[in-house]
Protein backbone atom coordinates (compact mmCIF):
# COMPACT_ATOMS: atom_id res chain seq x y z
CA UNK A 1 0.00 0.00 0.00
CA UNK A 2 1.15 3.53 -0.67
CA UNK A 3 0.20 6.85 0.88
CA UNK A 4 -0.66 10.08 -0.96
CA UNK A 5 -1.34 13.14 1.12
CA UNK A 6 -1.98 10.95 4.13
CA UNK A 7 -4.50 8.75 2.22
CA UNK A 8 -3.81 5.03 1.95
CA UNK A 9 -4.25 3.52 -1.55
CA UNK A 10 -4.08 -0.10 -2.53
CA UNK A 11 -2.67 -2.01 -5.45
CA UNK A 12 -0.96 -0.35 -7.82
CA UNK A 13 0.83 2.70 -8.62
CA UNK A 14 0.17 6.22 -9.77
CA UNK A 15 -3.00 5.48 -11.77
CA UNK A 16 -4.77 3.83 -8.88
CA UNK A 17 -3.62 6.53 -6.53
CA UNK A 18 -4.92 9.25 -8.84
CA UNK A 19 -8.29 7.49 -9.20
CA UNK A 20 -8.60 7.20 -5.46
CA UNK A 21 -7.73 10.85 -4.97
CA UNK A 22 -10.24 11.88 -7.61
CA UNK A 23 -12.97 9.78 -6.02
CA UNK A 24 -12.32 11.41 -2.67
CA UNK A 25 -12.93 14.81 -4.22
CA UNK A 26 -15.98 13.81 -6.23
CA UNK A 27 -14.18 13.60 -9.58
CA UNK A 28 -15.51 11.48 -12.44
CA UNK A 29 -14.83 7.82 -11.99
CA UNK A 30 -15.59 7.82 -8.28
CA UNK A 31 -18.79 7.84 -6.23
CA UNK A 32 -20.34 11.29 -5.62
CA UNK A 33 -19.58 12.86 -2.25
CA UNK A 34 -22.24 12.85 0.48
CA UNK A 35 -24.49 15.90 0.17
CA UNK A 36 -23.48 18.68 2.55
CA UNK A 37 -25.80 21.18 4.22
CA UNK A 38 -25.71 24.47 2.41
CA UNK A 39 -25.13 27.74 4.19
CA UNK A 40 -28.75 28.69 3.52
CA UNK A 41 -30.05 25.48 5.08
CA UNK A 42 -27.87 25.94 8.12
CA UNK A 43 -28.98 29.54 8.52
CA UNK A 44 -32.63 28.55 8.21
CA UNK A 45 -32.26 25.86 10.85
CA UNK A 46 -30.53 28.31 13.17
CA UNK A 47 -33.27 30.88 12.61
CA UNK A 48 -35.98 28.34 13.38
CA UNK A 49 -34.20 27.28 16.56
CA UNK A 50 -33.85 30.91 17.61
CA UNK A 51 -37.53 31.58 16.95
CA UNK A 52 -38.54 28.52 18.94
CA UNK A 53 -36.44 29.70 21.85
CA UNK A 54 -37.19 33.42 21.85
CA UNK A 55 -40.26 33.79 19.63
CA UNK A 56 -43.86 34.33 20.74
CA UNK A 57 -45.79 33.05 17.73
CA UNK A 58 -49.37 32.27 18.67
CA UNK A 59 -49.12 33.87 22.10
CA UNK A 60 -51.79 36.30 23.32
CA UNK A 61 -50.69 39.28 25.39
CA UNK A 62 -52.28 42.15 27.31
CA UNK A 63 -50.11 45.24 27.87
CA UNK A 64 -51.42 47.99 30.14
CA UNK A 65 -50.29 51.54 29.50
CA UNK A 66 -49.49 50.31 26.01
CA UNK A 67 -50.18 53.44 23.96
CA UNK A 68 -46.85 55.18 24.57
CA UNK A 69 -43.51 55.10 26.36
CA UNK A 70 -42.29 51.84 27.85
CA UNK A 71 -45.66 50.14 27.35
CA UNK A 72 -45.72 50.98 23.65
CA UNK A 73 -42.17 49.69 23.22
CA UNK A 74 -43.09 46.44 24.97
CA UNK A 75 -46.23 46.00 22.87
CA UNK A 76 -44.21 46.45 19.68
CA UNK A 77 -41.50 44.06 20.88
CA UNK A 78 -44.07 41.35 21.64
CA UNK A 79 -45.74 41.88 18.26
CA UNK A 80 -42.40 41.69 16.49
CA UNK A 81 -41.77 38.36 18.21
CA UNK A 82 -45.04 37.02 16.81
CA UNK A 83 -47.55 37.64 19.60
CA UNK A 84 -51.09 38.93 19.27
CA UNK A 85 -51.34 41.96 21.54
CA UNK A 86 -54.14 43.86 23.25
CA UNK A 87 -53.20 47.27 24.63
CA UNK A 88 -55.11 49.39 27.11
CA UNK A 89 -54.52 52.99 28.20
CA UNK A 90 -56.50 55.73 29.86
CA UNK A 91 -56.96 57.98 26.81
CA UNK A 92 -59.17 56.57 24.07
CA UNK A 93 -57.98 58.62 21.06
CA UNK A 94 -54.32 58.02 21.92
CA UNK A 95 -54.95 54.30 22.29
CA UNK A 96 -56.74 54.17 18.95
CA UNK A 97 -53.90 55.98 17.21
CA UNK A 98 -51.35 53.59 18.70
CA UNK A 99 -53.36 50.58 17.49
CA UNK A 100 -53.61 51.96 13.95
CA UNK A 101 -49.91 52.82 13.81
CA UNK A 102 -48.92 49.33 14.92
CA UNK A 103 -51.35 47.70 12.51
CA UNK A 104 -49.79 49.74 9.71
CA UNK A 105 -46.55 47.93 10.53
CA UNK A 106 -48.26 44.58 10.09
CA UNK A 107 -48.74 43.82 13.79
CA UNK A 108 -51.75 41.90 15.12
CA UNK A 109 -52.97 44.34 17.77
CA UNK A 110 -56.24 45.46 19.35
CA UNK A 111 -56.94 47.95 22.09
CA UNK A 112 -59.36 49.93 24.21
CA UNK A 113 -59.39 52.65 26.85
CA UNK A 114 -59.89 52.11 30.58
CA UNK A 115 -59.15 53.72 33.93
CA UNK A 116 -57.37 50.87 35.66
CA UNK A 117 -57.66 52.51 39.06
CA UNK A 118 -61.38 51.64 38.84
CA UNK A 119 -62.15 47.99 39.68
CA UNK A 120 -65.26 47.92 37.51
CA UNK A 121 -63.31 49.15 34.50
CA UNK A 122 -60.65 46.51 35.16
CA UNK A 123 -63.34 43.84 35.15
CA UNK A 124 -64.86 45.21 31.94
CA UNK A 125 -61.41 45.22 30.33
CA UNK A 126 -60.83 41.57 31.14
CA UNK A 127 -64.18 40.67 29.56
CA UNK A 128 -63.04 42.40 26.36
CA UNK A 129 -59.72 40.55 26.45
CA UNK A 130 -61.52 37.26 27.07
CA UNK A 131 -63.69 37.82 24.02
CA UNK A 132 -60.79 38.99 21.85
CA UNK A 133 -58.59 36.02 22.72
CA UNK A 134 -61.17 33.22 22.96
CA UNK A 135 -60.98 32.86 26.71
CA UNK A 136 -57.24 32.52 27.15
CA UNK A 137 -54.21 34.72 27.77
CA UNK A 138 -50.51 33.86 27.80
CA UNK A 139 -48.91 37.16 28.79
CA UNK A 140 -49.91 40.01 31.09
CA UNK A 141 -47.60 43.02 31.21
CA UNK A 142 -48.70 45.36 34.01
CA UNK A 143 -47.02 48.57 32.96
CA UNK A 144 -49.58 51.30 33.68
CA UNK A 145 -48.48 53.56 36.49
CA UNK A 146 -47.96 57.09 37.71
CA UNK A 147 -45.05 58.87 39.38
CA UNK A 148 -45.11 61.94 41.58
CA UNK A 149 -41.87 62.89 43.29
CA UNK A 150 -42.44 64.89 46.47
CA UNK A 151 -41.41 64.91 50.14
CA UNK A 152 -43.51 62.60 52.28
CA UNK A 153 -45.07 65.46 54.25
CA UNK A 154 -46.26 67.07 51.03
CA UNK A 155 -48.42 64.16 49.92
CA UNK A 156 -52.16 64.38 50.54
CA UNK A 157 -54.86 61.73 50.69
CA UNK A 158 -55.62 62.23 47.01
CA UNK A 159 -51.98 61.59 46.10
CA UNK A 160 -51.99 58.36 48.09
CA UNK A 161 -55.12 57.08 46.41
CA UNK A 162 -53.91 58.05 42.94
CA UNK A 163 -50.38 56.63 43.16
CA UNK A 164 -51.04 53.53 45.21
CA UNK A 165 -54.37 52.95 43.46
CA UNK A 166 -52.86 52.75 39.98
CA UNK A 167 -49.37 51.42 40.67
CA UNK A 168 -50.22 48.84 43.31
CA UNK A 169 -53.93 48.15 43.68
CA UNK A 170 -54.77 47.98 39.97
CA UNK A 171 -51.85 45.59 39.42
CA UNK A 172 -53.16 43.32 42.16
CA UNK A 173 -56.73 43.44 40.85
CA UNK A 174 -55.67 42.76 37.25
CA UNK A 175 -53.71 39.71 38.36
CA UNK A 176 -56.77 38.34 40.15
CA UNK A 177 -58.98 38.95 37.13
CA UNK A 178 -56.45 37.64 34.61
CA UNK A 179 -55.66 34.43 36.49
CA UNK A 180 -58.42 32.30 34.90
CA UNK A 181 -57.39 33.41 31.41
CA UNK A 182 -53.69 32.86 32.11
CA UNK A 183 -54.36 29.44 33.60
CA UNK A 184 -56.41 28.55 30.53
CA UNK A 185 -53.59 29.75 28.29
CA UNK A 186 -51.07 27.68 30.22
CA UNK A 187 -53.25 24.57 30.01
CA UNK A 188 -53.74 25.09 26.31
CA UNK A 189 -49.96 25.25 25.86
CA UNK A 190 -49.40 22.09 27.91
CA UNK A 191 -47.79 24.01 30.76
CA UNK A 192 -47.76 23.37 34.47
CA UNK A 193 -46.22 20.96 36.90
CA UNK A 194 -48.96 18.43 36.29
CA UNK A 195 -48.72 18.32 32.49
CA UNK A 196 -48.25 14.96 30.86
CA UNK A 197 -45.02 16.02 29.12
CA UNK A 198 -43.26 17.04 32.32
CA UNK A 199 -39.83 15.55 32.82
CA UNK A 200 -38.16 14.37 35.99
CA UNK A 201 -39.16 16.47 38.94
CA UNK A 202 -42.42 17.59 37.32
CA UNK A 203 -40.94 20.30 35.11
CA UNK A 204 -40.52 19.05 31.57
CA UNK A 205 -39.02 21.44 29.05
CA UNK A 206 -41.96 21.33 26.68
CA UNK A 207 -44.60 22.20 29.26
CA UNK A 208 -42.64 24.77 31.23
CA UNK A 209 -41.35 26.46 28.08
CA UNK A 210 -44.92 27.25 27.08
CA UNK A 211 -46.11 28.55 30.44
CA UNK A 212 -48.12 31.72 30.85
CA UNK A 213 -46.42 34.70 32.45
CA UNK A 214 -46.93 38.03 34.18
CA UNK A 215 -44.40 40.85 33.99
CA UNK A 216 -44.62 43.88 36.28
CA UNK A 217 -42.89 47.07 35.19
CA UNK A 218 -41.53 48.30 38.49
CA UNK A 219 -38.61 50.64 39.23
CA UNK A 220 -35.25 50.71 40.94
CA UNK A 221 -37.04 53.10 43.32
CA UNK A 222 -38.66 49.98 44.75
CA UNK A 223 -35.37 48.86 46.24
CA UNK A 224 -32.83 48.05 47.38
CA UNK A 225 -31.75 51.71 47.23
CA UNK A 226 -33.88 54.67 48.30
CA UNK A 227 -34.14 58.34 47.44
CA UNK A 228 -34.79 61.58 49.28
CA UNK A 229 -38.32 61.97 47.91
CA UNK A 230 -41.05 59.98 46.21
CA UNK A 231 -41.83 57.63 49.11
CA UNK A 232 -45.32 56.81 47.81
CA UNK A 233 -44.00 55.81 44.39
CA UNK A 234 -41.17 53.78 45.92
CA UNK A 235 -43.55 52.02 48.29
CA UNK A 236 -45.93 51.08 45.49
CA UNK A 237 -43.13 49.64 43.36
CA UNK A 238 -41.62 47.72 46.27
CA UNK A 239 -45.06 46.23 46.85
CA UNK A 240 -45.38 44.82 43.33
CA UNK A 241 -41.85 43.41 43.49
CA UNK A 242 -42.93 41.43 46.54
CA UNK A 243 -46.21 40.53 44.83
CA UNK A 244 -44.19 39.01 41.99
CA UNK A 245 -42.41 36.75 44.47
CA UNK A 246 -45.61 35.72 46.21
CA UNK A 247 -47.52 34.96 43.02
CA UNK A 248 -44.52 33.15 41.54
CA UNK A 249 -44.71 30.67 44.40
CA UNK A 250 -48.50 30.49 44.57
CA UNK A 251 -49.28 30.23 40.86
CA UNK A 252 -46.40 28.06 39.64
CA UNK A 253 -48.69 25.04 39.94
CA UNK A 254 -50.99 26.74 37.44
CA UNK A 255 -48.18 27.14 34.91
CA UNK A 256 -47.87 30.89 35.49
CA UNK A 257 -44.51 32.62 35.95
CA UNK A 258 -44.31 36.09 37.51
CA UNK A 259 -41.39 38.54 37.36
CA UNK A 260 -40.67 42.26 37.68
CA UNK A 261 -38.54 44.55 35.53
CA UNK A 262 -37.06 47.52 37.39
CA UNK A 263 -35.87 50.35 35.13
CA UNK A 264 -33.82 53.38 36.09
CA UNK A 265 -34.79 56.79 34.68
CA UNK A 266 -36.11 56.13 31.17
CA UNK A 267 -36.24 58.59 28.27
CA UNK A 268 -39.94 58.43 27.58
CA UNK A 269 -41.89 61.55 26.64
CA UNK A 270 -42.85 61.97 30.28
CA UNK A 271 -39.34 61.20 31.48
CA UNK A 272 -37.79 63.82 29.24
CA UNK A 273 -40.13 66.47 30.64
CA UNK A 274 -38.66 65.81 34.07
CA UNK A 275 -35.08 66.22 32.86
CA UNK A 276 -35.08 69.85 31.80
CA UNK A 277 -32.73 70.77 34.67
CA UNK A 278 -29.15 70.31 33.35
CA UNK A 279 -27.76 69.81 36.85
CA UNK A 280 -30.26 67.03 37.54
CA UNK A 281 -29.43 65.27 34.28
CA UNK A 282 -25.71 65.57 34.94
CA UNK A 283 -26.16 64.06 38.39
CA UNK A 284 -28.18 61.13 37.08
CA UNK A 285 -25.60 60.34 34.42
CA UNK A 286 -22.78 60.61 36.95
CA UNK A 287 -24.44 57.93 39.09
CA UNK A 288 -24.94 55.57 36.15
CA UNK A 289 -21.82 53.52 35.28
CA UNK A 290 -22.87 53.12 31.64
CA UNK A 291 -23.10 56.91 31.33
CA UNK A 292 -26.55 57.10 29.77
CA UNK A 293 -30.19 56.77 30.77
CA UNK A 294 -32.50 54.01 29.57
CA UNK A 295 -34.44 54.05 26.32
CA UNK A 296 -37.88 52.40 26.27
CA UNK A 297 -36.48 49.69 24.01
CA UNK A 298 -33.94 48.73 26.70
CA UNK A 299 -36.81 47.86 29.01
CA UNK A 300 -38.88 46.24 26.26
CA UNK A 301 -36.14 43.79 25.36
CA UNK A 302 -35.92 42.45 28.89
CA UNK A 303 -39.71 42.23 29.19
CA UNK A 304 -39.95 40.31 25.92
CA UNK A 305 -37.25 37.90 27.09
CA UNK A 306 -39.17 37.19 30.29
CA UNK A 307 -42.24 36.37 28.20
CA UNK A 308 -40.34 33.97 25.95
CA UNK A 309 -39.65 30.23 26.25
CA UNK A 310 -36.01 31.16 26.90
CA UNK A 311 -37.11 32.35 30.36
CA UNK A 312 -39.11 29.21 31.11
CA UNK A 313 -37.27 28.61 34.41
CA UNK A 314 -37.21 32.25 35.56
CA UNK A 315 -39.85 33.29 38.08
CA UNK A 316 -40.13 35.44 41.19
CA UNK A 317 -37.27 37.71 40.09
CA UNK A 318 -36.79 41.46 39.81
CA UNK A 319 -34.44 42.32 36.93
CA UNK A 320 -32.89 45.79 37.06
CA UNK A 321 -32.50 47.63 33.76
CA UNK A 322 -30.42 50.51 35.04
CA UNK A 323 -27.02 50.71 33.37
CA UNK A 324 -25.38 49.57 36.61
CA UNK A 325 -26.96 52.23 38.83
CA UNK A 326 -28.15 49.83 41.53
CA UNK A 327 -24.76 48.13 41.94
CA UNK A 328 -22.49 51.18 41.72
CA UNK A 329 -20.33 51.94 44.73
CA UNK A 330 -18.51 55.11 45.66
CA UNK A 331 -15.46 54.74 43.41
TrEMBL record:
<dbReference type="Pfam" id="PF13561">
    <property type="entry name" value="adh_short_C2"/>
</dbReference>
<dbReference type="InterPro" id="IPR036291">
    <property type="entry name" value="NAD(P)-bd_dom_sf"/>
</dbReference>
<dbReference type="InterPro" id="IPR020904">
    <property type="entry name" value="Sc_DH/Rdtase_CS"/>
</dbReference>
<dbReference type="Pfam" id="PF00106">
    <property type="entry name" value="adh_short"/>
</dbReference>
<protein>
    <recommendedName>
        <fullName>Ketoreductase domain-containing protein</fullName>
    </recommendedName>
</protein>
<dbReference type="InterPro" id="IPR057326">
    <property type="entry name" value="KR_dom"/>
</dbReference>
<dbReference type="InterPro" id="IPR002347">
    <property type="entry name" value="SDR_fam"/>
</dbReference>
<keyword id="KW-0560">Oxidoreductase</keyword>
<comment type="similarity">
    <text>Belongs to the short-chain dehydrogenases/reductases (SDR) family.</text>
</comment>
<dbReference type="GO" id="GO:0016491">
    <property type="term" value="F:oxidoreductase activity"/>
</dbReference>
<feature type="domain" description="Ketoreductase">
    <location>
        <begin position="59"/>
        <end position="228"/>
    </location>
</feature>
<dbReference type="InterPro" id="IPR045000">
    <property type="entry name" value="TR"/>
</dbReference>
